[in-house]
Amino acid sequence: MGRKNWARENELRSLESNLPYEGLEKGKQPNRYFPSNAIKTTKYSLLFFIPMNLYEQFHRLANLYFVGLVILNFIPEVNAFQPEIALIPICVILSLTAMKDAWEDFRRYQSDRKLNNMPCFIYSRKEKQFVERHWKDVRVGDFVKVVCNEIIPADLLLLYTSDPNGVCHIETANLDGETNLKQRTAVSGHPEFEPESFNGILVCEKPNNNLNHFKGYVEKPDKQKVGAGIESLLLRGCTVRNTDHAVGFVVYAGRETKSMLNNSGPRYKRSKLERRLNIDVLFCVILLFTMCLIGALGHYLWLNAMPVVPPYLVPPTSGQLDRPSLTSFYMFFTMIILLQILIPISLYVSIELVKIGQIFFITNDIDLYDEETDSRIQCKALNITEDLGQIEYIFSDKTGTLTENKMVFRRCSIMGTEYPHKENAIRLAVLDEPEAEEEVIFNQHAQPLPTRWSLDSEEANVEDTHGHGSRRRSKVTGNAQSDVAFSSPLETEVVPDGKLFQKISRTSSGSLSHSQKTDAYLDFFLALAICNTVVVSMATTKRRRVSVSPQAKHTNTPLETLSKDSEENFQPSGQTEGVDTTGLQPCSPHPPSLSDEPALTSDNLRYEAESPDEAALVYAAKAYGFTLLSRTPDSVSVRLPSGEVLDFEVLDTLTFDSNRKRMSVLVRHPITKEYVLYTKGYASILTGHGNKKNIATVTQRHLDCYAKEGLRTLCIAKKVVSEAVYKRWSVDRKNAMAAIENRERLVMDTAVQLEKNLTLLGATGIEDRLQENVPDTIQALREAGIKVWVLTGDKPETAVNIGYACGLLEDEDLVINMAAVFQITCTNILDCTLEEVRRYNADPRNVDTTQNMSLVIDGLTLDKALSPDLLDRFVALVKHCRAVLCCRVTPLQKSRVVKVIREKLKVMTLAVGDGANDVNMIQAADIGIGISGQEGMQAVMASDFAISHFKHLKKLLLVHGHWCYTRLANMIIYFFYKNVAYVNLLFWYQFFCGFSATAMIDYWLMIFFNLFFTSVPPIMFGLMDKDISAEMLLGVPELYKTGQGEGDYRFTTFWVSILDAFYQSLVCFFVPYFVYQDSDIDMFTFGTPMNTSALFIILMHLSIEIKSWTVVHWIIMLGSVALYFIVTLAYSAVCVTCNPPSNPYWILQSQMEDPMFYLICILSTVVALLPRYRVCHSLSSVGLKIFNCPEFWGVFVTRFDLCTSLTAMQL
Amino acid sequence: MMASSYSAKDEDGHITVSGPGGGTLRNKKPENTAFKQQRLPAWQPILTAGTVLPAFFIIGLIFIPIGIGLYVTSNNIKEFEIDYTGDDTSSPCYNCAKNFSWNNTKSCTCTIPFQLDQPYESNVFMYYGLSNFYQNHRRYVKSRDDSQLNGNIDSLKVGASSPMASRKKKKPSKECEPYASIDNKPIAPCGAIANSMFNDTLKLFYNDPNGTSVPIPLTSTGIAWWTDKHVKFRNPVGTNSNLTAVFQGTVKPVNWHRPVYELDTDPENNGFINEDFIVWMRTAALPTFRKLYRIIQKKNNMAPTLPRGNYTLVVDYNYPVRSFEGRKRMILSTISWMGGKNPFLGIAYITVGSVCFFLGVVLLVIHHKYGNRNNSANISN
């Protein structure tokens, strides 16, 4: 058993069944080193909560600072207040945070417990059957039975299913949100599988978090290895569907399962504002130290000026006064304690609160809600809301982001003949008609648009799309609820082209079975129907698969060994009749009687595809009578127009990958017995392979045509493989599949090897329609000063066309097309263009006008342009470009582009995409936005925000982004101001108390002041203030520019506020000072009008900043004032000796009887706020609408011209 | 797009355990309420010339009269001040001040003649003023025991010798250190504030034109806050009503000449509730301050409280201030509703009011001259 150590340490694990060891003590169990299936996501344990939580919290610098101050306070030489009281603020903050953490942890604990106690079936050797246990009892090496609709408890290697084909369907919605069913196949086809007979050893890789990847093999006692991939792995958290039951071998359990490894919790990103904030906190620290230094120095000078010891200088307990230098040294620390609130500790807590509120408002915005999919916007990153208001570059995917990714089959070209499908185009136009009618009411012109995308007039095309975009501005297309993906009538119903239809029916009129001639037309449609991974389901019975009836399968399953797999697995054509009796594989143990023969009309067939292109093609094939009836891993049945059903044996499926850019299906033709490879893929790869020259060129021309119209093109090809070639290839393939090292590459190589010398059959053009309001949104974003880039995998022609359609490119733009094969050409183009730009800008005639330049670049050229020596030139060029279109880029290039722009230009970037190919880009950008569209949820999982339509970006950025940013920026500035203003009162007093760190305000009241009286209004300000209304922000996108670059929150703004705070505190201190100079005023009576007018000043200052007052504002503002008076009055009435050295007893009461108190408060408040009020409002009275005073100096010029439009809109 | 390879790095939260097919139809549509949609009816202060200008004028119009009123009131207050520090050789108190220290037990008396040019009609308040005396020093302010002053008998107990026991048995608060106890006997009242209590005695004589010197009656009660005298400060109530017995076992502060129970003969003004003591204990906010010493009550007849003429101030010079370059003053003042004489507030109000008014005028002019263009633009749009 030297295997144990090997299993732990090596790259690979080998697992064996637990059953032989059942009942033995733990030390004898072979799999004891692997974690059990019980999960624990809690951070703390009950016993150690307090120390662990404190440890966690002290990781925050702010908390350490606070604790340091408290400790300082316990040193008698230094303390400023009673040390016990100084503990209060930190205790409040720490315990609030601890309470929040404890609650969250408790929630986690509850959900853990619920999960761990879910029931499941584990095989027991003693009882010779599966017995019910809990999830937490599952161990690696167990055999677990899962039944239909049950959640899988651990990562299982599928060994047996009730399905005769060895297939198990799972729904991975819990993992990645994708609701389409996925097929998993059993590793070895044991029809009567018995757990006890499993005697192999499973060798697999170490646990990792890749959901789409698994490699391993089962080593049988006879050293035979059977490969196992992700297609045989049932992942924890998925749901079993359409399969009565399945048995799996536990590979990974508990925290080692793929779903748990993926569960890394919410992402943490630091916003730009927060980074700036930290700099300002640093400034505050410097300010604090300066003030303390002044205090210490002042104290030293004051002491030195003293000739003898005066009676008011109290020596320490020892009775001996320290030297002045030492006393001043202590004084420095005392000053830090006194002036500590200069560093706004509560700011961090407040920011967190405000961000939670902002996210609440964003997610509750009804405008960002999508009826169709019933989804709100999801905020996954909790702390970068304000970054939404600072975006300068948007990188967008095209397919599914700008376009709907609802693929509509538009036209095709078969063997060099073009079929334009005019009838279908008319149907699509009719589908749009209802909206057009609605729009008539608003727009006086409603041009009937019979055909769009007509080949004849290209100019009309562009106009059409523009018209199209605006017509659909207000309505969601009528294809609402869709149970199954890609099944709106728009996509499912294709009206066949008359000519083509006739041709098809002619060719297939005679029975195909005995016509040996393979007609290219038939092949073309067969390829459409077969070459895909579409899963067929019945419309009437949702989520139940059509599959081959059991008896048909039983005849040909003598499969004991996998080595002989598919060759013997093929079905002789004589059995095709059996396929006709397709039945349902019921979910429940009591199947509905098969007698009510489900009518297998083509109407109730539903296709579920992983990509919408596939579905569109299958529907197109169906329109011509080639109906895909069912698909299992081993066979595909297609009904021909003649009504005959062909049952193809699927020998292999070469799945799509972005390197090959194609997929193929290798089938054995039931009639001709030929091995046929059907391939579909991007044109550039298919053409140029062995084919008739003229067909290839004609098809190429058609393809170019399609691309110009913005259609997505796919080429369809086939290849007949001889048996010898296939045999040889299949051995290679099998080896590649079983390989552990380099498996992907080997598998790909085998695919490429086979996909050679294909015969071109034809090409298809699929339309991907623009989403609603895309041109409008892009226009608005551009007006907002955001540069929009489109990065797409499509070909340049398609991309440019979509670019024009969505308004990214405009007719008068200068479009630079960069397509260079060689480095040197690329360099030349860059240099020339840059020179031209420089000349243009240098030209005095062009001072005011900026040339609208756009760049179109393809992936290959991009690679060169991003090479280190050209990078700077490329960046310099794109800085001048209004729009950039990158075509044919790989996911990696997308993220590369984002990173380069983000780092080189130091701008805020946003990436938006919907597919797996956008994940890299989404993660590279400052803000990643996922569109929950048609292509699963991978982009959404990786994103910070997930929206359902591109148009939502407009409100999200222009309104919410702007609000979140200005609100937070203003709140932070206000916080700094507030603390500086208040602390400075104490600082000025030091000049009159010999720099002895005396506070003239009772310490409790000081704590209350920050904790209660002035804490809620700024949070409310950060949550609810609206400097500009949503309508205006949407109407005048230029307003967004205030947030870009430095934005509202900048160096000057900060310092203007700090200076204002200094001024206000001066007023607030010296008005009472001059009034009470040389009077019998006592210390705390002196502090009371100051505290009161500070409250008024600080609140009134906020009132000036608040741009819109709602009921909530009034309540909170007046409430704060009321709270101050009530609490202070109560405190000074009750507390006779409770806070020994300082004694506020009856002070406020006696002050409130004194008219002077009110006169002082009024005067200080008015004088303190007059400058701010005057600067703000006297300017606005002269006609300059200034939104916020501090920014006035910075953005005066840019805002000046806005004012006219703004006032115009207000009226 | 059919890409299949990706790495989903971040996945949020837990596996949600939902029953089969359940919970998928829930409507997630946000509520369309004014609050959630951020559409609460809001008042947006639109700042046009029409709303801002009146604000300036109103401030001006309100502030200027208030300022004038304050200024006039302040001017009507009569105040007389005499410095008797005695650091000048010409000063009558020079001899007293020259070689005086806290250790002197024998008091030194000096006589200062002065003249009032105006008669003082109403009640006259007599203050003593100190300069450069930092009663607001942090350590000084703290150096007191409020619970002792509030009559807590425990704070007068003898501190036990062992520190453990002393914690249970209260004694003067440690804040009083080093003026808490002498030879293990608690000081009553403890602390630096009490220790440094002002102990000059001021007497006032009116020099009749006919040559006789008439002592002016000085009221020594009613000078402290009512709440201080009746709530904050209390004599300890022991088994004995006799103050001397109550303070048995305590010692007087170092600098005091008499123990606390001999501050006054009136039992209602003796001990901790002695008003001079209470006034001193209310620490001044600024280093130059005055404290109320006596009140000269207006007599019922028509004669002024202090007629015009010559007066003599007789000082029992006990309080040394020269050591810290302090000064001592005696102030006579009448008061009004706004307290003592203070022209600042009146002037400030007048100034601010005028500035606002002026600003209003300037803005009005600007608005008239340049604002029209803008206004018309607004309307035409």
Keywords:
heterodimer; A: 1211 residues; alpha+beta; nine-stranded mixed beta sheet; nine-stranded antiparallel beta sheet; 40 helices; 35 strands; globular; disordered N terminus; disordered C terminus; B: 381 residues; four-stranded antiparallel beta sheet; extended
Notes on the protein architecture:
The complex is a heterodimer of chains A (1211) and B (381). Chain A is an alpha+beta fold. Helices cover 45% and strands 16% of the residues of chain A. Chain A has 40 helices and 35 strands. In chain A, strands 14-35-34-33-15-29-32-31-30 form a nine-stranded mixed β-sheet, with helices on both faces. In chain A, strands 17-16-28-27-26-25-24-23-22 form a nine-stranded antiparallel β-sheet, with helices on both faces. In chain A, helix 31 (952-990) packs antiparallel against helix 33 (1016-1024). The relative contact order of chain A is 0.08. Chain B has 381 residues and is an alpha+beta fold. Chain B has helices at 49-76, 94-98, 138-142, 146-149, 163-168, 192-195, 226-232, 243-246, 275-281, 343-380, and strands at 79-83, 108-116, 124-131, 181-182, 185-186, 201-207, 213-215, 289-296, 309-317, 327-333. In chain B, the strands form three sheets. Chain B has a four-stranded antiparallel β-sheet with strand order 1-10-3-8. Chain B has a four-stranded antiparallel β-sheet with strand order 2-9-6-7. In chain B, a hairpin with a 2-residue loop joins strand 4 (181-182) and strand 5 (185-186). In chain B, helix 1 packs antiparallel against helix 10. The longest helix of chain B has 38 residues, at 343-380. Chain B starts with 48 loop residues before the first helix and ends with a helix. Chains A and B meet through helix 4, helix 5, strand 24, helix 30 and helix 35 of A and helix 1, helix 3, helix 7, strand 8 and helix 10 of B.
